[in-house]
Design a protein that fits this description.
Length: 156
């Protein structure tokens, strides 16, 4: 703040107005610093934004992981199913061969085929019971994808 000479009253008024403007800015800055409610609101808003960002990132990561896991489980289940199918075909071929051989020697076609079919069914059932995890994993992955698809349709 400068002092004006008595001979220049306009200059003195301008200094006073300038000083008042600076004082008003200072008071406004101090009021903003002491307004705890507004400051906490701003912090809460920024914290909520950060939390939303983290949740979005975590959600995308979970979806990606679930998709990759589903593909892996599906591939393993398909491979095991193909192996079981191949073993079943081999067993059926063996059973048919045995049945036709038995028919030629004993004449008991139907009973030999029934026995062979039961043996093949038992082998397949035992194979699935021995390693149920791929079947269960594929069913769980399919259920998870169904739920995700259902929720997406509901939000649209």
């Amino acid at each position: 703040m400068s002092t004006a000479s008595p001979s220049d009253p306009d200059k003195g008024r301008q200094d006073i107005q300038h000083t008042r403007a600076e004082l008003g800015e200072t008071v406004a800055a101090l009021a903003a610093k002491t307004d705890v409610k507004t400051r906490l609101g701003g912090k809460a808003t920024s914290a909520a934004g950060g939390l939303r960002q983290r949740l979005t990132t975590a959600s995308q990561s979970a979806k990606t992981s679930a998709t990759q896991m589903f593909r892996t489980v599906s591939q393993k289940a398909s491979q095991r199913a193909a192996t079981a199918k191949q073993k079943t075909r081999q067993a059926m071929a063996t059973a048919r061969g045995s049945a036709s051989a038995g028919t030629q020697t004993t004449g008991k076609t139907e009973s030999t085929e029934v026995t062979s079919a039961r043996a093949v069914t038992a082998k397949v059932g035992t194979a699935v019971r021995a390693k149920p995890m791929p079947v269960l994993a594929a069913a769980g992955a399919a259920a998870a994808l169904t739920i995700v698809a259902y929720r997406r349709r509901r939000t649209r």
